[in-house]
Design brief:
Number of strands of chain A: 7
Structural class of chain A: alpha/beta
Largest interface: A-B, 38 and 38 residues
CATH topology of the largest domain in chain A: Rossmann fold
Mean pLDDT of chain A: 93
Oligomer: homodimer
Largest sheet of chain A: 4 strands, parallel
CATH architecture of the largest domain in chain A: 3-Layer(aba) Sandwich
Helix content of chain A: 40-55%
């Protein structure tokens, strides 16, 4: 039997739905019963992560831990969180539970390493940038990175909040793409889409270098881990 | 504070993701925090509903009840189920929990009544058809209905399983649309899309009569009920 995946979601809700949809689409299945069991707590009442990191608001940490514990109690065998920025609190979450937590940041940084690019361009929300989540993950792996300057970041962040408000139209698409291309102009040989709202408006065909999408990376990894125990048990039974 | 919606899902998973996505899209929201909290148990291991109704397989009832109880325990204030056919067991589920269960069948039948159509065409999976879920709901409301004959139903059902296997391409779209049009030719003045896979391949623009989609109807109703308590409490506070 495969393992049950728990998703800490609602950060935001549309990104959670996107993650869930991609998880289903990427699962090899001939019918319903081949799919993985997934438990989702989509809780948009969790305080804003970017505001908290900027010191402007309540910490989401107790809410994230509560969601993680609730999902474990409900039967999840492993946890993921469909939000890069919230990984600022990943150690607190992982310490609170007894099941594995798959880190979107670590998995995505590992995938960026495998791209072989000498310099990785980073697109991330304010909170993830302020907390230097990807910067530190790539530093730890000895890989160069570059990111948007402060003015460009403000414009990028406005686009992210526009997407969160439900607008994923041409204007916001063009804006996000322009920021992606600016990083490539400055020398990035691969890009990390380190915010779950990005794939709602940008895909691999929009840029001429590898686009490492944190959502896709974590989806693939979660499926592999959830099915691993299945394969292992099948081998043991054989 | 709005109420938390629990979704019994995985029946199938893609239909659950579609329901979740539509719930988010239909929620009036300027940002993450305006959205509703949603708990999902997407459990594709629940035995096939159509097989069970046909007497060919294990009953999903204990699994559906377990999912309902788990969602209530996890904090859901009201429950919905993103699968028409599974509503064959709606009374068992509703009896097991202390929170309200919003029936997709009853809400959709009520919406069909509001269309004013004298005769309602029914598109539903084998199990829902064998159990006469919509037929009985419309009989109880004194409204005429018609449905596919046995041969057409077999072809329709093959298309549904194709969608469940991940293929929502042009072939399956054309097939489902042809069956919808055949009901209109026979006199249906409105159609109930009484299977959550249908809106994955057919929308209102594809047919010349009102298309009452069970997914959309339940999404709108769940949002209204979840937000009702919020408005009521705001009024009390005012």
């Amino acid at each position: 039997m495969s393992r049950t995946i728990g998703i800490i979601g609602g950060l935001g809700p549309a990104a959670t739905a996107d993650f869930f949809k991609k998880l289903i689409a990427a699962t090899p299945a001939k019918g319903d019963s081949d799919h993985l069991r997934v438990l989702i707590d989509s809780n948009p009442r969790i305080p804003d992560r970017n505001d908290a990191i900027a010191g402007r608001g309540e910490s989401p940490a107790p809410h994230l831990v509560a969601a993680a514990l609730g999902l474990e109690r409900a039967g999840a065998d492993l946890l993921v969180m469909a939000c890069n920025t919230a990984h600022h609190w990943q150690d607190v979450i992982a310490a609170a539970i007894t099941i594995p937590f798959l880190s979107m940041i670590d998995e995505t940084a590992d995938a960026a390493m495998r791209s072989g690019a000498a310099t990785i361009g980073l697109l991330a929300a304010d909170g993830a940038r302020s907390a230097a989540l990807y910067e530190r993950a790539l530093d730890a792996r000895g890989r160069a990175w570059l990111r948007l300057d402060d003015a460009a970041q403000r414009d990028f962040m406005a686009a992210i909040y526009t997407i969160k408000a439900g607008d994923a139209g041409d204007g916001v698409r063009a804006g996000i793409r322009a920021h992606a291309l600016s990083l490539i102009d400055r020398g990035a040989a691969a890009l990390i889409a380190g915010c779950t709202e990005i794939p709602l408006v940008l895909d691999a065909n929009d840029v001429p270098v590898p686009l490492i999408e944190s959502t896709d990376v974590l989806v693939r990894r979660a499926i592999a881990v959830a099915r691993q125990s299945q394969r292992r048990r099948s081998c043991e039974a054989a």
